[in-house]
Specification:
With about 260 residues, this protein is α+β, with helices and mostly antiparallel strands. Helix content is about 25%, strand content about 30%. The chain is built from 6 helices and 14 strands. It is globular.
Length: about 260
């Protein structure tokens, strides 16, 4: 697999960057809270720019970079796995072994009927089991959210069992690490723990590529759907969303429970 890096000058990128802020909406993580997301729509995206903003807690979806900007709340913290010091636990190694025959293909992000069917199946399952809000995604929505803006550094890991697509893991391969954008899988294969396995493979891939981190997105204390992240120690946490001229102050972190 050849990974090509685009080192476009981020100052040039900033001239193609447009700001707009979404109106207040109900928070998905904390009951009775409101959320305001800062959106930045970027016309020309480089791995260098994406690395710098990911290091500062931003998240990329398509050509849009977002981070929360809630004046009265600071519960969203960024997490990243320390790849160089990571040791797979016995249970994680068992998950890896169970997937010995799972085929993984590294591709550019794309959308097909197969993608849409699997995505909607996963979210219907999560809506029923965990109460997630859900409406089926269209091809246009999927393309704008997960395909646009990927350029050379955006990849999708496709997982196949017996020739069937069972998991799609969307990532950015950056200058210093892998950013986990989004993962969805077939809930009819619980034995394979595909959500866990996809993250374990990201760690293995980062190690193979000589990268230091796997960026996991946000941690919100008490939010059930983020609980899995604390199982991937050692972790570092970032408080806040520093400006581009500030150095991000990542600190070692372990959940208290």
């Amino acid at each position: 697999m050849t990974i090509m890096a685009n080192n476009t000058n981020p100052q040039r990128i900033n001239r193609n960057l447009r700001n707009f802020t979404q109106d207040d909406a109900p928070c998905s993580y904390i009951p009775d809270k409101r959320v305001k997301m800062n959106h930045r729509l970027v016309d020309v995206i480089s791995s260098n720019f994406t690395t710098k903003v990911t290091e500062r807690g931003w998240r990329r979806f398509g050509r849009s970079f977002v981070y929360p900007q809630c004046g009265d709340c600071n519960e969203c913290k960024s997490l990243r796995v320390d790849v160089n010091n990571y040791k797979f636990s016995k249970s994680q190694q068992k998950t890896i072994n169970r997937n010995d025959d799972t085929e993984i293909k590294v591709k550019q992000p794309w959308v097909s009927d197969e993608h849409i069917a699997l995505y909607n199946k996963y979210h219907q399952y999560k809506a029923k089991r965990d109460g997630w809000k859900h409406k089926d995604i269209s091809r246009t929505e999927y393309f704008e959210t997960f395909v646009e803006g990927a350029n050379e550094f955006g990849k999708e890991l496709r997982y196949y069992i017996d020739g069937k697509l069972v998991c799609v893991d969307l990532i950015d391969i950056l200058d210093d690490g892998i950013s986990a954008i989004y993962c969805y899988y077939d809930p009819e294969y619980p034995r394979y723990s595909l959500g866990t396995y996809s993250l374990l493979y990201e760690i293995k891939l980062a190690e193979m590529l000589g990268l230091d981190w796997v960026y996991l997105g946000y941690w919100v204390d008490g939010y059930k759907s983020f609980e899995y992240k604390k199982n991937f120690q050692p972790l570092q946490i970032l408080d806040g969303f520093p400006a581009m001229f500030e150095k991000p102050n990542w600190q070692p972190w372990k959940s208290e429970d």
